[in-house]
Design brief:
By secondary structure, the protein is an alpha/beta fold. The protein is built from 13 helices and eight strands. The chain has an eight-stranded parallel barrel with strand order 1-2-3-4-5-6-7-8, surrounded by five helices. Strand 2 (42-45), helix 2 (57-71) and strand 3 form a beta-alpha-beta unit. The termini are far apart. The model has no long low-confidence stretch (mean pLDDT 97).
């Protein structure tokens, strides 16, 4: 029996930076407390939204260590350790395990564009290098490679590969994954598809939206899990405009901007990420106001 890492809303948390460009651990600690207080069900540290691709190895490890130590087992901490280099993915995954991470999130290897056979070998080797659970991350729009349902079925044979963050945007593919791999927990990787994924048996979401609306994102999931599908759907639909605005430019540009508007000391983005275009900023502000966020 595979272990479920979490059910509900896991936040793909942003990484705040100081004025001189270093990780702002004081602000990160405040955010972690904020998420625990607002019922976020898991923390995903050093994911796409956390700008991990622009971090040094030392920063990546330091951020994971801080999150694990600061959360102190209040909710699960899942460390992003994916890489396009299998050996580096193993190294980082082992370090995250040693630091006390509850699970790993491993993205498909980008740029190299592995074959399905290569994906099986890549993820199997990483998973077998650690003892903690591994959640795969399928986001072909960013990595250029898609985990096919048949490939996931093969990977499900690895005992500690327990879940997938499915962000292909293809609900038919997600349905086939659910049919072929009932032992694998599916998490929506798209905030506009939480309810559709959960209707297929999904466990929840790994969310960008939860950065600015943690309680509401938790409630979308929890109401569905409690059987109140109508209320869950209503909350999902109410968030659609804001979700669209949070992705009107490449993530995490809009969500980090939104956090700054809400008064959080998050600092700048790391190049090549840059400040929003003015017209998109106005779209974001309008969506935030319509959703009821005050700034």
């Amino acid at each position: 029996m595979k272990k479920t890492v979490f059910t509900g809303s896991g936040v793909a948390i942003i990484t705040p930076f100081t004025e001189d460009g270093k990780i702002d651990f004081e602000s990160l600690g405040k955010m972690l407390d904020y998420h625990v207080e607002n019922n976020t069900d898991a923390i995903i540290i050093c994911g796409t939204t956390g700008e991990a691709a622009c971090m040094s190895h030392e920063e990546h490890v330091a951020a994971i260590k801080f999150a694990v130590d600061y959360i102190d087992s209040r909710i699960p901490v899942i460390a992003g350790t994916g890489s396009n280099d299998t050996e580096y993915g193993i190294k980082l995954s082992k370090e995250a395990e040693n630091l006390g991470a509850d699970a790993l999130l491993c993205v498909t290897p980008y740029y190299n564009k592995a074959t399905q056979k290569g994906l099986i070998e890549h993820f199997t080797k990483i998973a077998k290098s650690v003892c903690i659970p591994v959640i795969l991350y399928n986001v072909p729009s960013r990595t250029g490679v898609n985990i096919k349902p048949e490939t996931l079925k093969e990977l499900a044979k690895v005992p500690n590969i327990v879940g997938i963050k499915e962000a292909s945007g293809d609900i038919a593919q997600a349905a086939k994954m659910a049919a072929l791999c009932p032992e694998i927990d599916i998490y929506s990787g798209n905030d506009d598809m939480i309810v559709p994924i959960m209707s297929l048996g999904g466990k929840g979401v790994i969310s960008v939206l939860a950065n600015v609306a943690p309680k509401e994102t938790h409630d979308i999931c929890q109401k569905y899990l409690d059987g109140d599908v109508k209320a869950s759907l209503q909350l999902q639909l109410e968030a659609i405009e804001l979700v669209d605005a949070l992705f009107c430019e490449v993530n995490p540009i809009p969500v980090k901007t939104a956090m700054r508007l809400l008064g959080w000391n998050v600092g700048t983005l790391r190049l090549p990420l840059c400040e929003m275009e003015e017209k998109n900023l106005e779209t974001l502000k309008s969506a935030m106001k319509n959703y009821g966020l005050k700034f």
